[in-house]
Each structure stands twice: as C-alpha cells, then as structure tokens.
Amino acid sequence: MTQAAITRPGFDVLAYVSLQAATPVPLSLKFQYNEKRAQATLCLLQSSTILEGFDGAETFIILQYDAENLVPGAVSLRPMGFHQALSGIARSTRPDIRRLSFKLKRCCPTWRPLTASLAPKPGFVDRFQHLVTLANATELHIVFDYSWLPPQCLATFQQLVAQPEQLSGYPVHRYYSQCFKREDVFSSHLVAPVDAALASDATTEDEEQPPPYIAASNKRQASTSAPSSPPTRKRTVLPQSNPAHIHPSKAEKGSVTTTALDVQQAVHGAVLHILPGILNTVLPGLVQNAVSKYLPSALEDVLPNLLSAPLSPSSQSASSQTSTRVPKALSALGTVLTKRVVLGLKQELEDVHNQTLSHADDLRSTADAQFQEDLEELRLELVQAQEELVNDLHRIGDDTLTEFKERCEAEGEEAGDRLSRRIFTVYDRLSDKVDPLLEGQGELATWKRGLLEQKDELLKRKSKLVEDERKALAREMALLGRESEGPEIDRDRVDRVTNESEKRHMCRARCIERGVRARSAPV
Predict the structure, then answer these.
(1) Which residues pair with 139 in a beta bridge?
(2) Which superkingdom is the protein from (predicted)?
(3) pLDDT exceeding 70 applies to what percent of the chain?
(4) 3-state percent breakdown (helix, strand, coil) of the chain, nearest 5
(5) Dist. CA 343–CA 413, nearest whole Å
(6) CA 290, 291, 297, 299 torsion-angle sign
(7) What is the β-pairing status of strands 25-34 and 39-47?
(8) Per-residue pLDDT tens over the stretch 36-68
(9) Domain edges within the chain
C-alpha cells in the first residue's frame, strides 16, 4: 500500500458541476496566492483513500484552477443560507456560507499520483465518477465557509472574483511536479475498469463474513450462557443403609478403588473426546471476551509494580529457588485454555503492534510530508525574499544613481550660474574700461571716414579744377589760334596767359595738398 505524505489538505468544501446537481462532491480547498506578484490559484483536493493501493489520507488528486483560466465576468461570490446539511463544512456555530461560481476557458489540469491507472476502492465508485465529471467540467460551483480564509488573503481573493484577468496562475508545479503527474485532461484511459472494483467489492463482502464457528459461538452466547465445565455422566448412587458400606473390608476397598479408576479413565476419555469440539465452539468467544474485559485492568494493576519495584535479595533468592522448581503438570483443560490464551494474546499483541507501527508510520509520513512542504515553502519564501531583496537593491541603486545625477545636475547648474555671474562681473568691469576706448575708436573711425570722404571730395574738386583748367586752356588756345590768323600775333600776351594759368593751377594744387595733410594728421 502507498502511504506517501505529499501535501496538507485545505478546508472542507462542497463542489457542484451545476446547481441542479443533487449530489455534491466533498473536497478540500486550498487558495495559493502571491499578492506582490499578482498570482492566485484555487486547488481542489480529493484524498486518495478512495483509490486502490492507497491507505493514508496524505496523497491527493488535485484539480488546479488558475486565475488566468477563469472567464472574466463569469465569476461570482454570493452568500447562502445555512442548513444542517452544511454543518460538515462550517468552521464555527455561526458560519459565513458562500457559493463561488465560475466558468473556465478550458478544462482544468489535474495532478494525480504516479501510478499507471487509477481505480476506485469498493464502495467509492460513485464518488470517483463524480470526481471525474468534476475534473472535466468547465463550469463549477463551490460552497464553503468564508471564515476559513485568513485575513491576509482576502484582498487577493476578492480580486480573483472581481478581476481575474489581472492575475496569473500561482506556480503550484514547484510543489507537485516531483510527487505527482500532471494531466491536462482527466481522460478515461487513466481510469481502471470499474467492473473490477465492483467484483472486488463483492469478493470483499464474502470474505468479511465470519467463520461458521464464530457465528455459532455468537449465537450460543446470545441465546444461553455456556457452561464453564464439560458435562459428566450420571453415576449410580449405592444405598448406604447397610453399615458394611460404611466400613468396607480390604477386598471391597480394592474393588472400589479399581472401579473408581475405571470410571475416572472413562470420564477422562470422554472429556478428551468431547471437550475439543465444545471448546472450539464456545471457548474462543469466552476467552476473547474474558481477556478483553479483564486483561487491561489486570495489566494496569500488575505491570507498574513489577516494572517499578526492584527485586530485593530475598525475593531474588526466592525467585531463583522458585525458578528451579518444576512446574506442575497442567490438566487437559488448563493446556487447552493456556494454548488458547497464548494464541489470543499473541494475536492481540501482534495486532496492537501492527496498529502501533502503522500509526507511527502514518504520523512519520505526515510529519515528513509537513516538514517537506514547510521546507519547500520556506525555500520558495527564501527565493522570493532573495528576488525581492535583489529588486530592492536594484531599486535602491537606481534611486541612488538618479539622486546622484540630479545632485550633479543641480551642482552643475549652480556652478554654471556662479561662472556666469563671474563672467558677467568681469565683463561689466571690462566694459567700463573698454567702452571709452571703443567710443574713442568709433569717433576716430568716424573722423577717419570723414577725412577720407573729404579727400575724395578734394580729389574730385582737383580733377574738376584740372578739367576746368584744361577746358580754359583749350579755349584760350583756340582763341589764340583764331587770333593767330590775324595780321599780327601778340606773343607776349600768350606767354603771359599761359604762365598765369600754370600759376593758378599750381596754387590750387598746393592748397588742396595742405588741406588734405592737415585733415589726415592724428589728433
């Protein structure tokens, strides 16, 4: 038999495929969630005690309902009235019974034990068929006591009901992948034929019937009380009116002794012949009842004194003396009773020992499973804490880097402002000194431009004067030419006019040159 403790159950719920279903499926519900990562999953657990080959209640068939598999808008949580049929799922005398209804996008994945096929035990066939129907359903109704949910998970549970599209599935495969096998569809090839279970059910019922002698003993005990000693044959009582019978002779004594021995042997043979059948019929029930009734109290009275009190030297010597004594021979009844008592005690002690070992194995398996699950949860919490710590470190580093950049930018802006103020101060000081120079330079440039303009103007006037002189000279030459055609030419007049013209021209040129020099001289 398999007794693998894998996971701890949740709290009891009732699951319906439809609201019209008359028979609910009693299951256990676990709500796995992670609020920071927005993960949530509903797990319905069916104990494997309904399956062949499983004894302990620590292994389960698990139906996984992830938040991402729920149809948005088709999830509802409504209160229900309490009645006596729901007392098995109530947490207290004032339960908060609610019905969770939802639809699935596809059939839920199933985690099953690592066996080739699954077969229900006799008497659990209908329940197993309901479970198969439930695993393949896309619409589900779960009735549970809302007070089972711890306060820290209520926000995530309400978000699962209101907005399942904002959540993803919880990674339950970290828990179940090592000891379970996932099936996306709980198909028929995973289920062993039910006829075998029904046949084994009938066989088990036949095997569980008690043997005939036990039934007979039970009937005998119920009808009449069994005799504590076997019946003896009737003996003929001789009349004792004769005094000779009171004081017999030696011959009579011998004959009487021989007759008594013959009768005793006959009785002993009859007892040996009849007693085993009677004991086989009556004694087992009597011995079992007597042992079960008187043995516990006798052991409680005797064993503590025997185990706690040390043996004194006298008692040790007495025990050593008595141990060397030869035990008395048991009678036939004592031998039979001793054998029966020894066999009954041996069987009872073996049953107690086996039950103790089985209970110890169950406790050990449960403790190991709980320890492994706690260890796995602790490991996942440590991994999650490590990831959160790394994320916190990255966030702190990013915040520190951003703050450092902002501080550097602020200090850079402040340094730029200080430098700008210094530059403006120096510029103002230089401006105060340079502006007069620039103004003087501007005036000088203006004066220089004026001189150049005057120079150009004088040059123009010079060229104009020269041109005028040339024209005047040409006119005079023409006049002289006309006069030369006369009878006489006044040579002196021509020379005088020419000399005067040259003098005027030279005088004007010198005046212009002096004016240009005077204006071009530096201030």
Answers:
(1) 103
(2) Eukaryota
(3) 63
(4) 65, 15, 25
(5) 101
(6) positive
(7) antiparallel
(8) 899 999 999 888 777 777 766 566 788 999 999
(9) 11-207, 385-520
What Rg value do the Cα atoms of the chain yield, rounded?
Answer: 65
Q: How far apart are CA 313 and CA 318, in angstroms?
A: 8
Q: What residue has token string 């109530």? A: 90
Q: What is the pLDDT of residue 199?
A: 45
* Helical pair 250-308 and 332-484, crossing angle rounded to 10 deg: 20
Quote the CA–CA distance of 211 and 213 in Å, as a whole number: 6
Q: Are 64 and 112 in contact (CB under 8 A)?
A: no
* Average pLDDT estimate for 128-149: 89
* Spatial distance between the Cα atoms of 295 and 289, rounded to a whole number of angstroms: 10
* Mean pLDDT value of segment 457-479: 78
Inter-residue contact 16 to 131 (CB < 8 Å): no
Q: How far does CA 321 lie from the centroid of its chain?
A: 70
Sign of the CA dihedral with 381 first, then 387, 393, and 399 last = negative
How many Cβ atoms sit within 10 Å of the Cβ of residue 508?
16
Question: Are the beta carbons of 373 and 175 closer than 8 angstroms?
Answer: yes
């040259």: which residue's tokens?
502
Q: How far apart are CA 394 and CA 400, in angstroms?
A: 10
CB-CB contact of 9 with 26 (8 Å): no
- Calculate the alpha carbon distances from 249 to 80, 241, 243, 258, 446 in Å: 102, 16, 12, 14, 193
Tokens of 447: 């004066």
| Contact yes or no for 77/83 (Cβ under 8 A) | no
Per-position DSSP letters for 201-250, written without gaps between them: HHHHHHHTSPPHHHHHHHHHHHHSPPPSS------PPPP--SGGGTS--H
